[in-house]
């Protein structure tokens, strides 16, 4: 097992490197870089894309070193100022040199500083990460708390009216995108058009500091209810069906029929024999479920509910073309996903020691 873990850890390096290469190359073809953002603001356009539309197309990062005349809307600014911006942001160097320098800094855990926030990228990530982790953890926990007993019940009542109508609800829940469900919750329960039951923004109220301990706890759960509900819906649907199918597969096996033939009660058979084997794939997939919720819901959910987490940070950085923040958050997301994949494998072994990944690879 140790050799398998070592191989997986070593694979993180080329995989993460490939992710960074692909995304760095893609940014070279995206119009409206950080210098154009600054120029657009100084020219009073407000948005760099207005200048792009008016100019019939804008240069990519590869053209930053071509001179001030290449920038849409830069005619009113001195060329010396543009050249100084290029030097400050590092765009006076070729893309390959910039990428190699960036990866060398990342190897030393130096993620640089945001172009527009005057703060280190690592400081920003550390500041925003707890919000995203909180949202992902609560969504994952609630999904498991609902899905496991519901899935077991559906397996026991397979083919009944209960199984039929709950399956219909699950299919609907699975089909609804998280962001669409979030908008529906906002419209219905956050003062969009109907009831003002839950707050629309943030994780805490303005008077957070003046609240008692119980008041702070209640205020926190009051704010997080809608975002967590929107993040949970897809994971809950998939987990329920996974639990049901896992139990159905186990119930049909020979050892279950043998246990019943010995006179054991159905409850003893179900929870004493079937449960451990059926839950293997469900519980071992906990890290993967957390990562899917963390990645899939953080961007849109955090933006819709104005939660100051990594997803919203990445979105704002992408709009502003804040490349250090974009690549820094991408690096953190990629590293977390790869590490959690290893943790997921370890969960399988922990739950069922009979699993040996090294023999399977051989």
TrEMBL record:
Keywords: Cell inner membrane, Cell membrane, Membrane, Transmembrane, Transmembrane helix, Transport. The chain crosses the membrane at residues 9-26, 131-152, 164-190, 220-243, 278-305, 325-351. GO terms for biological process: microcin transport; transmembrane transport. It is found in: Cell inner membrane; Cell membrane. Gene3D superfamilies: MetI-like. It holds the Pfam family BPD_transp_1. It is a multi-pass membrane protein. SUPFAM superfamilies: MetI-like (SSF161098). CDD domains: TM_PBP2. One of its GO terms (cellular component) is plasma membrane. Residues 129-348 form the ABC transmembrane type-1 domain. Its main location: membrane. Belongs to the binding-protein-dependent transport system permease family. This is Microcin C transport system permease protein. It comes from Poseidonocella sedimentorum. The lineage of its organism: Bacteria, Pseudomonadati, Pseudomonadota, Alphaproteobacteria, Rhodobacterales.
């Amino acid at each position: 097992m140790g050799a398998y873990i070592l191989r997986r850890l070593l694979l993180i390096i080329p995989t993460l490197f490939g992710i960074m290469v692909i995304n760095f190359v893609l940014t070279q073809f995206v119009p409206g870089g950080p210098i154009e953002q600054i120029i657009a603001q100084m020219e009073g356009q407000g948005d760099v894309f207005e200048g792009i539309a008016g100019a019939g197309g804008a240069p990519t990062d590869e053209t930053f070193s071509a001179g001030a005349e290449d920038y849409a809307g830069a005619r009113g600014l001195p060329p010396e100022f543009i050249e100084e911006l290029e030097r400050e942001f590092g765009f006076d160097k070729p893309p390959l040199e910039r990428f190699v320098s960036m990866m060398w800094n990342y190897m030393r855990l130096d993620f640089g500083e945001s172009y527009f926030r005057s703060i280190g990228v690592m400081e920003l990530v550390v500041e925003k990460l707890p919000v995203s982790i909180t949202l992902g953890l609560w969504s994952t926990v609630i999904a498991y708390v609902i899905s496991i007993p519901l899935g077991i019940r559906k397996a026991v009542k397979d083919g009944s009216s209960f199984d039929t109508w709950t399956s219909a609800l699950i299919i609907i829940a699975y089909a609804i995108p998280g962001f669409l469900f979030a908008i529906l919750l906002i419209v219905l329960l956050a003062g969009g058009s109907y009831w003002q039951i839950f707050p629309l923004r943030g994780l805490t109220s303005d008077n957070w500091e003046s609240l008692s301990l119980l008041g702070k706890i209640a205020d926190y759960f009051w704010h997080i209810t809608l975002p967590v509900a929107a993040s949970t819906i897809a994971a809950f649907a998939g987990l329920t069906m996974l639990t049901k199918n896992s139990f159905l597969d186990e119930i049909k096996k020979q050892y279950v029929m043998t246990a019943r033939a010995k006179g054991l009660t159905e409850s003893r058979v179900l929870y004493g024999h079937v449960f451990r084997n059926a839950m293997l794939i469900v519980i071992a997939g906990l890290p993967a479920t957390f990562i899917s919720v963390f990645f899939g819901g953080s961007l849109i959910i955090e933006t819709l509910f104005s939660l100051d987490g990594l997803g919203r940070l990445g979105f704002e950085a992408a709009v502003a073309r804040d490349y250090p923040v974009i690549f820094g958050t991408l690096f953190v997301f990629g590293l977390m996903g790869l590490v959690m994949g290893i943790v997921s494998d370890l969960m399988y072994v922990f739950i069922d020691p009979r699993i040996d990944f090294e023999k399977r690879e051989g």
